[in-house]
Amino acid sequence: MSRPVIGILGNSHLINDQYEVQGVGAMNIAAVAEVCDAIPMMLPADPSMVSVQDALQVCSGFVFPGARANVHPDEYGHPETEAHGTFDRARDGLALPLIRESVARGIPVLGLCRGFQELAVAFGSTLHPEIRDIPGRLNHRMPPDGTVEEKFEKRHWVTLNADGPFARLFGAAEVFTNTLHGQGIEDAGARVVVDGRAPDGTAEAIYIEGAPGFAVGVQWHPEYEAGQDPVSRPLFEAFGRAAAGLRRVA
């Protein structure tokens, strides 16, 4: 039986500061191919190149990965400030409607870091531009120096709701994760259930209430060593099972 196709949203960036490309991190590709047991396919994050309907006809699930650029605050009704950093309006233009339509149809969705924030914003949440500026919050940003291993090192615990889907999935009420983000959920939308938090209260795991299919996001980066990590592996395996169970075009 053929493996399901899982779309991974690409990111726009420049090679040598002048040649524009779309790319997907090798960690995400490996997590989909090896742990989800699916065919990874990059979707250019631009609605002028790929429509929501195009994507839905081809893919049995979608990964919305992390990115340097942030969701534009226009998408959640906040004014743009310097603290919001850089943006990718083309990715906003594809990711947010694709998330909404996928969730409505029961097509599996997994949001990681920026993708977690996209899932939250798509269902009415607002974001804070710099979590570390809130009194009592940790600095969740990527360490500026060090090796890849040091940047993705686990740095804090996430406490999960004991009777929630993440605790059931991981078989534990607490998990130890990496953290590489600056922004985070400020106010959760009506259907956005925060099912796990960092020690400082920052939302780290969410799902969409009433979604007919797999619709979850985590603020950390589970794609790092996804095949070996005891938290990452069951997350990608569950997502892969959901995509394999769909195996249909829209």
Automatic annotation (TrEMBL):
<dbReference type="GO" id="GO:0006598">
    <property type="term" value="P:polyamine catabolic process"/>
</dbReference>
<dbReference type="InterPro" id="IPR029062">
    <property type="entry name" value="Class_I_gatase-like"/>
</dbReference>
<dbReference type="Pfam" id="PF07722">
    <property type="entry name" value="Peptidase_C26"/>
</dbReference>
<dbReference type="GO" id="GO:0033969">
    <property type="term" value="F:gamma-glutamyl-gamma-aminobutyrate hydrolase activity"/>
</dbReference>
<dbReference type="InterPro" id="IPR011697">
    <property type="entry name" value="Peptidase_C26"/>
</dbReference>
<dbReference type="InterPro" id="IPR044668">
    <property type="entry name" value="PuuD-like"/>
</dbReference>
<keyword id="KW-0808">Transferase</keyword>
<dbReference type="GO" id="GO:0016740">
    <property type="term" value="F:transferase activity"/>
</dbReference>
<dbReference type="GO" id="GO:0005829">
    <property type="term" value="C:cytosol"/>
</dbReference>
<keyword id="KW-0315">Glutamine amidotransferase</keyword>
<protein>
    <submittedName>
        <fullName>Putative glutamine amidotransferase</fullName>
    </submittedName>
</protein>
